[in-house]
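FW: tagging you since you asked about this chain on Friday. Here's the raw sequence from the shared folder, copied in full. Didn't touch anything.
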Amino acid sequence: MKNIAIFASGAGSNARKIIDRLQGSTTIRVAAIITNKPDAGVLRIAEAENIPSYIIDKETFFRGDAYVKLLQDLHIDLIVLAGFLWKVPANLVQAFPDKIINIHPALLPKYGGKGVYGHFVHEAVIAAGDAESGITIHFVNEKYDDGTTILQEKCPVSPDDTPETLAKKVQALEHEWFPIIVERLLT
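HL: got it, structure written out here
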């Protein structure tokens, strides 16, 4: 059995899609949901699905090895960042080389980096007049949004798009492709 830990900071819509995709799998399971926010919606998903959940402390996450040990004790094969808004510390990246993936709501290398997430990305794409946007699924390294690309999928940006309408197009791509890539990486 391959074990996944999903890290999320918000509602958990991508976590939900991954869990749904893996429902009934005999080879892959979501072994943990990890969040940095005690009120994150993803915790309700974890509770409803009987998936162990953990709320991480910022100081311990960035300055200690406790979470590395936790993930090793859980025999995690893949860490999936699904809307997790903290940069992953080097000790965790080094403990899980090429075993941490992220999804970014833009076509990297454009519109990536510290503080560039969610509506900020969509606002920037529209302000630049780009004809297309999309998603990038990539391995995580020590830099923001810099790891090797696994997949990019595109959607058109129409002249009447707002950050909200573009967000819906991009999220549809996330929900379609992220669960597929997670499954492919573990089979």
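FW: Residues 85 and 170 are 18 Å apart (CA to CA).
HL: agreed, and The first strand starts at residue 2 and ends at 7.
FW: great, closing this out.
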